[in-house]
Design brief:
Shape: globular
Strand order of the largest sheet: 3-4-5-6
GO molecular function: sarcosine oxidase activity
CATH superfamily of one domain: Folate-binding superfamily
Pfam family, one: SoxD
CATH class of one domain: Alpha Beta
CATH architecture of one domain: 2-Layer Sandwich
Bound molecules: zinc ion
Strand content: 35-45%
Structural class: mainly beta
Largest sheet: 4 strands, antiparallel
InterPro entries: SoxD (IPR006279), SoxD_sf (IPR038561)
Organism: Rhizobium miluonense
CATH topology of one domain: Folate-binding fold
Protein name: Sarcosine oxidase subunit delta
Distance between the termini: 28 Å
């Protein structure tokens, strides 16, 4: 079992976390067409290697950013969200 580090609670089992999407995939603002919504909701990058993602720690309900490697599964960093990362 892999451990993820919640920036608010510390190391916890990965089963306590929920994936929230790619960091920087921001919700479209204003009057946007269906294609923009479709791209936001259904089309994701499936990057190999270093990625930055949004995760939620279910027990504390806090949302945070995680930098990890999709190949090695190594977690490089976790931190509270900045304004640019908020979904
Ligand atoms: Zn937590």
């Amino acid at each position: 079992m892999q451990l993820f580090i919640c920036p608010f609670c510390g190391p916890r089992a990965e089963t306590e976390f929920h994936f929230g999407g790619d960091a920087g995939n921001l919700r479209p603002e204003g009057d946007v067409d269906a294609m923009a919504w479709s791209n936001y909701l259904y089309f994701r990058d499936n990057s190999r290697g270093a990625v930055k993602e949004i995760w939620m720690h279910l027990p504390c309900r806090e949302v945070f950013a995680m930098e990890r490697d999709t190949v090695t599964h190594e977690v490089h960093a976790t931190h509270a969200l900045t304004g640019e990362e908020r979904p």
